[in-house]
Every structure is written in C-alpha cells, then in structure tokens.
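Go through this fold for my students:
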Amino acid sequence: MKCGLILEFEDDEIGSLLIATFGALVTTNPASDDTPILRIERPAARRYRILDANGRAASSIDPGHLRFQVDKQVAIHLQLQRPDLFFVHGAVVSRGDRAALLAAPAGTGKSTLTLALLAQGCDYLRDELAPIDVSSMK
C-alpha cells in the first residue's frame, strides 16, 4: 500500500494549491517505482485536466473545481486502498472521549462551524475526508 497520495503536477501554482489542501496525503518525493495516482496538467491558461493512473482524464476544469475533483479522486483512491474504512466528506471534532462528524455538501459551513467548536473547547481531528471504521462505526 502506498504511504501517501502521489500527485504529479506541472507547476508550482498547482503544487501549492494541492499541498495546502491535501498536504498530509501528498507524497512529493515518491520512490522511483511509484506511479502517480493523479497527474494534474494545465493545457490552457486557468484550465486544468486531471489524469488518473490509467490515463483517464477528467474534462478541463477551472481552478475553483480543481480541488473538488481532486478531492473526489482522493476519496475513491483511499476507499480502494482501505476497504475497512468508509470515507465521508466532512469534518470531525472531539471533546473528551466523544467525537462528532460534521458531514454536509461543500460550501455549507463545515469549516466555519469546526472553527467555532474549537473556540468552545473541542479538539480538531479531521477536515475534508473523515474515515469511519465500518466494523465499529467510529
């Protein structure tokens, strides 16, 4: 199993955006025998194309949709690598021995609510992708 999500990108602007969003999952120095899981190209100004490991491409997208499309591909990749877990788009905070999953569509305020809960004494566990253990539902 790969240790991280291997992304290959053409320029520093793309790299900065993806590392800022998926930093803990990104491997920027893969072993020589590792194949990138995703390659992000810029065939035209301010338009992007995402190719998976099999060379299948997502249609040309603007910067606003790049993170969404990569997020989708990351979730699929992680789900295939870890079938014992179920990945949900959401944030997770905890307090004491309890955790709360905040699952909602993108742009609905999960991150804002997470920050407010942190200010009220909750601990930060996750944002964007929350793995749930299928056997224990935790």
